[in-house]
Amino acid sequence: MTLDAIDIVVPFYGRVDYLAATVDSVLAQDDPRWRLTVVEDGRHDGLGTPAWQRRLEDPRVRWVTNPERLGLTRNFQRALDLVDHEWCVFPGCDDVLLPHYVRTIREVVTHGTTIDMVLPAVQVIDESGRRSAPLADRVKRLLRARQPAAELHGEGLAASLMHGNWLYFPALSWRSSRIKEIGFRQDLPTTLDLALAVEVVRRGGVLALTDVEAFQYRRHGLSESSLAASTRTRFVEERLLFSELEAAFSAMGWPRAARAARWHVTSRLHRGVAHVARRRTGGRLRVGPS
Predict the structure, then answer these.
(1) Ranges for the Glycosyltransferase 2-like domain (predicted)?
(2) Where are the alpha helices (DSSP H) in 48-205?
């Protein structure tokens, strides 16, 4: 199959210096077949400088500013609504695409079977851009390493994600038509990524994995999901989502996935570790996303 440009859509609310690194990493792609859209949610200072204007001179770069602040979930949906091409990705406004990201995704899609999601290998970096290996990411790496094939689908994939969400949502490329018909859930701001991925799997979607490291995921304490975890919001949402999925999987005749959703072992362990650490830090702990 042939593949046109990949839509790289960045919902933006946060630090301009981090966003600059994200945009520059897109401009540095060694495959030119991409289109970048930044969806600014709320006005930010520091975007009128000559350096920023030079970034916007590339005709493949589009800047959209929401007329009013939408918040995380509505801005993700706004970003999805702006997708025009067959494939898309939603990197965080603090993440970095390695120069071969677009080329890597295109190669997987071109040479694979019918695929709906592509996940490259991911490097984790800290707030300063240094390689990092927090506990959450060591667990993700172990869970991913247990996957039996380069293309995954069905109950096996669903059960695996219920045991522990080893996906890196900002690095995932998606078949646009698959997710446009689903959309981002508006009631799950910190678990909308898992909810979307599992819904694609429930509808027969296929996830392709490649061991090529093509993305840098920035884990730091000021992210939306980190703040949500520190206030227990994430764990409340996870319990709601897992309960819904247990019922959905049971109705589909997927008992292994239903059982995994019922126990959601990694989420429970994450919640326990966060609880202990919060008590030691007086409630100031910030824990990254699952």
Answers:
(1) 8-133
(2) 50-55, 72-81, 101-111, 135-145, 154-163, 176-180, 192-202
- The H-or-E segment that residue 255 falls in is helix 255-263
Q: How far apart are CA 224 and CA 222, in angstroms?
A: 7
- The domains of the chain, with CATH numbers, are 6-281 (3.90.550.10)
Compute the C-alpha angle 49/62/193, nearest 5°: 110
Nearest-angstrom CA–CA distance, 23 and 114: 30
- Give, in order, the Cα–Cα distances in Å from 127 to each of 137, 200, 218, 220, 286: 15, 32, 7, 6, 13
pTM tops 0.70, yes or no? yes
pLDDT at site 132: 92
Token pair of 18 as six digits: 């981090």
Strands 96-97 and 206-218: what pairing? antiparallel
Nearest Cα neighbor of 109 from 150, 156, 160 is 150
Contact present, 232 and 249 (Cβ < 8 Å): no
Our CA angle for 180, 185, 187, nearest 5°, is 165
- Taking only the tens place, the pLDDT of each residue in 34-71 is 999 999 998 898 888 898 989 999 999 999 999 999 99
DSSP conformational letter for 222 = T
The total number of residues written for the chain in this structure: 290
Q: What is the pLDDT of residues 138-150, one digit of tens each?
A: 989 999 999 988 9
Helix (H) or strand (E) holding 70: none
